[in-house]
């Protein structure tokens, strides 16, 4: 028997929650309803509530009295933060195996905030009226594995659409609890984290292939503003023990915005953990800008810059020399905090595929501004290797892998093949 | 035993598909792999493929030879369209109970296109590297109940993250196949479809509550560019037999764009089906514009117009008299095609909550331009009722419900309470 937590606003969605509870219990599993309603009390006849809204708030040192004095926006924000704490506590107490939520915009915002506090692997599903159209995934899933299901119709009352989508949501969360639910934990076997984008993947894939051949487990993250954030989490959680951080595009995005902004403070988890790092400036020379978000999301003078259309909606726009130097300064400052073995590997023939000589984003002066600023900013004790290669060349990846292997062989680590 | 179809590019993702297949088969269920790889042949040692890429293309009258002569973009588009046909055919033959896909951008685009061809209720899950950050839900889910799961890490090779997310994806799809999987079908019981937005919900909720009290099953759709599309589908499929279309905001969005664009040809399914309709111009007087997509997605002179911030990122901007008259012309032209009973109900005190006298979006001249143009454009035989109410007033909803009930009582229909 599994226990499914249901996060719901029991002042408005008690009928739909009762329906879901009944389905889950009929399958032989237990339910714990966690009330995140913000009106101060559940609806009349709301049915069983295992954790009252007041208890959720209590986990954050708050009370219903405090909440009901706030305006609606503040109530939702407050309840969301409290739910994140309460849900994480419940999870640590092993109060549930999997967590489900259903509702509209308010429920979705609060449930997503709470679920993002849970580790990857714990089954989490949001059934939402909002999960469609021009809504963005980011606010729902963050850097986690939250499963999102579009409800098609408004989740209000039981009709043939809500019956169907709630039954599938229940089936999915029960199935995950029964057959999935694998935690991602630190182990004796070394795990190598790598960062990539399409424009660096030629090199990164060659590096991870070589490391896998040598018996290491590798995990690649897309440096889109999300993947780098996930990698930093897993380094902090000691799941990842070595960093092949060949795509620092998110640092340029952190400084100058664009489509891949969102992963801030990159490089700092590895620095703090003292793990071996091989770092290369993959795609630091470009900003990703999407026409989905209007040309006012592009650098104002972007038409005067080198740029290419990466796909139907995404442009890669070259940074200026002054901008890339600013990025180099940030990177140097962070790498100087590293406490473990570190190689900085410079692909002198371009930081992204289209940055190679003869390609549209090539600009030797801009790349040189990065290299010079970074080198001047870095401690002299940090190993510096320049390669006459483009970052997306397999040979560059081979070199990066060899650098990392040298560090790993110098310290005692278990290989992935030793573990289950 | 259930059968799970796996849609995957077997030239690149065969290792991950084998892993998923093994999990599903170990649980006692069957797998049918449908290859949507576009390189011309599966990887060496790709394992069992129940439906080859060539067979998928064949369903659309194409061949691998044709495909491999195309450039990459065209291959993906072609395979996506062919997969939609092939998957729908397999489903009709009852070849599978539920469908799963896993992969990166190409797989996701093709799988989403194919899955959108399946009815609501059929379990469908996409495990995707893309389902995060600034990606939009729309291209994944359309107006369907596709479940989307963020893979956190790149889906390439088996490591502790891909093992965890694939196990949960498998658990979810198997659970849905076993415990969900409820089709939404036409029945003898009448189902009423309603359209709503926050700014019209006061009236719409009162209407649906009254109709539910009278024993009817009602389903509400959010008129966000998705819900209206879903309602039109369900009318065409004869699931919905009466239309309470009180929120025509998507028609203004169809004509002038904005956040809620995407549901085109509204009102035409009901016209063609000849079902009873009560129609009101809910939120036709505003465009929804999101700062997420930049101010260049707003009408160019929007600062000179009446507008309000609906939430942190969404603005409601009043149309001009000329614009709203254009919307009225489109609506009149479509309503004139109605072949069933039809009432047009005009809330004279404003088409959205903030359009009421004394509220920020009130503009009597603009609203009058709509009313006059619509009335002049409509056939005289169409019933026209003006109410001295705002659309979001419960009394307006009561009136709308009474109009629809009058039509329903005049024709023999079964009530929801008669059915299971």
Overall CATH class of the largest domain in chain A: Alpha Beta
Distance between the termini of chain A: 26 Å
Chain pair sharing the greatest interface: A-B, 87 and 87 residues
CATH topology heading of the largest domain in chain A: Rossmann fold
Order of helices and strands of chain A: EHEHHHEHEHEHEHEHEHHEEEEHEHEH
Strand order of the largest sheet of chain A: 7-6-8-9-13-14
By CATH, the superfamily of the largest domain in chain A comes out as Uncharacterised protein family UPF0261, NC domain
Task: Summarize model confidence as the mean pLDDT of chain A.
Answer: 95
What overall geometry of chain A do the principal axes of the alpha carbons give? elongated
Largest sheet of chain A: 6 strands, parallel
Which spans of chain A have pLDDT < 50 for at least 5 consecutive residues? 416-420
Count structural domains of chain A: 2
Gross CATH architecture of the largest domain in chain A: 3-Layer(aba) Sandwich
- How would you classify the helix and strand content of chain A by structural class? alpha/beta
Strand content of chain A: 15-25%
Write a concise keyword list for the protein shown above.
420 residues; alpha/beta; UPF0261_N (chains A, B); elongated; 6-stranded parallel beta sheet; 17% strand; homodimer; Rossmann fold; 2 domains; 14 helices
Quick rundown:
Mean pLDDT of chain A is 95; it is low at 416-420.
What does the model show?
Chains A, B: Pfam families: UPF0261 (PF06792), UPF0261_C (PF23189). Chain A is built from 14 helices and 14 strands. In chain A, helix 2 (about 55-60) packs across helix 4 (about 70-90), helix 8 packs across helix 14 (about 395-410) and helix 10 (about 250-255) crosses helix 12. The two termini of chain A are about 25 Å apart. Chain A has helices at about 15-25, 55-60, 65-70, 70-90, 105-115, 140, 160-180, 200-215, 225-235, 250-255, 270-275, 320-335, 365-375, 395-410, and strands at about 5-10, 30-35, 100-105, 125-130, 145-150, 190-195, 215-220, 240-245, 275-280, 285-290, 305-310, 315-320, 340-345, 385. The longest helix of chain A is centred in the N-terminal third of the chain and has 21 residues, at about 70-90. The relative contact order of chain A is 0.10. Chain A folds into two domains: about 5-180, 3-Layer(aba) Sandwich (Rossmann fold), CATH 3.40.50.12020; about 190-420, Uncharacterised protein family UPF0261, NC domain (Rossmann fold, 3-Layer(aba) Sandwich), CATH 3.40.50.12030. Chain A has a six-stranded parallel β-sheet with strand order 7-6-8-9-13-14, sandwiched between helices. In chain A, strands 2-1-3-4-5 form a five-stranded parallel β-sheet, with helices on both faces. In chain A, strands 10-12-11 form a three-stranded antiparallel β-sheet. Chain A is an alpha/beta fold and about 425 residues long. At the A-B interface, strand 5, helix 7, helix 8, strand 7 and helix 9 of A face strand 5, helix 7, helix 8, strand 7 and helix 9 of B. Strand 5 of chain A pairs antiparallel with strand 5 (about 145-150) of chain B, so a sheet runs across the interface.
